[in-house]
Design brief:
The chain has about 220 residues and is α+β, with helices and mostly antiparallel strands. The protein folds into 3 domains: about 80 residues, no CATH class; about 50 residues, no CATH class; about 70 residues, no CATH class. The protein contains 6 helices and 9 strands, in the order αββαβββββαββααα. A 3-stranded antiparallel sheet has the order 2-1-3, with no helix packed on it. The chain has a two-stranded antiparallel sheet with strand order 4-5. A hairpin with a 2-residue loop joins strand 8 and strand 9. Helix 1 packs across helix 2. The relative contact order is 0.08. The mean pLDDT is about 90.
Length: about 220
């Protein structure tokens, strides 16, 4: 076998190569072949001596092809095409599983076809206790009658508690505003399921004390 270069000559040529010419790019087979870093390739002593030029060794799960960076995207290596593919990164974003009625996390870089990403506004609707359904590829949020009853009762009881100090035994009864007494009576018509029977639930909005007063003045 004829060698065009000695090992020492190959080593010298290898050392003279710019660092960027010796870089290889790793991908992780356990993470959708995503880009995982760089490393310096060593040379193949035998092939380099035979060919008369530096032949780099390609480590496992590496490529000589350099990926490009783009904000919000991830590089996934396509082994069949031997190239990097830039994919919009959806990993760890939230979506709503309508079937299971819960917020879930996407655990892949690529977005599953049947998944719609949640916005912050969408999350607030869910945290407000609303139900969710998909209509024409979009989330639609709504209260069931049961959910709306719970919302009304919670708001009514919260507003009742807000003004409890007026009705504390230490508070002078002659100082309690007449409209406050009327407002509490109004709230008590809304703070139990029994009181809400036969009412148009979805059109009830629990008034604040200020709204109640303003409504009274408008009737004058």
């Amino acid at each position: 076998m004829i060698y065009k270069l000695t090992h020492e000559e190959v080593q010298k040529l290898y050392n003279q190569l710019p660092k960027e010419d010796k870089i290889v790019y790793r991908y992780d087979p356990d993470d959708e072949y995503s880009f995982s870093g760089e490393e310096i390739a060593e040379f193949d002593p035998l092939e380099s001596q035979i060919s008369g030029e530096v032949v780099l060794l390609l480590p496992a799960d590496c490529t000589f092809k350099k990926p490009t960076n783009k904000s919000g995207y991830v590089n996934l290596f396509n082994k069949n095409k031997n190239l990097w593919e830039q994919v919009k990164n959806y990993k760890n974003q939230k979506y709503y599983n309508v079937k299971n009625q819960r917020i879930e996390i996407i655990n892949t870089y690529k977005k599953p076809d049947d998944v719609i990403i949640l916005t912050e506004e969408d999350e607030q609707e869910i945290y407000a206790g609303k139900s969710v359904k998909l209509v024409n590829g979009k989330y639609e949020f709504y209260y069931t009658d049961e959910q709306y009853i719970d919302k009304i009762i919670t708001e009514a009881n919260s507003n009742l508690a807000k003004y409890d100090f007026y009705f504390n035994s230490d508070y002078p009864t002659d100082k309690i505003p007449v409209r406050m007494v009327e407002y509490r009576e109004y709230l008590r018509t809304l703070n139990s399921e029994h009181n809400l029977e036969d009412k148009d639930i979805q059109n009830i909005n629990v008034m604040t004390y200020e709204e109640f007063i303003n409504q009274w003045y408008m009737l004058i």
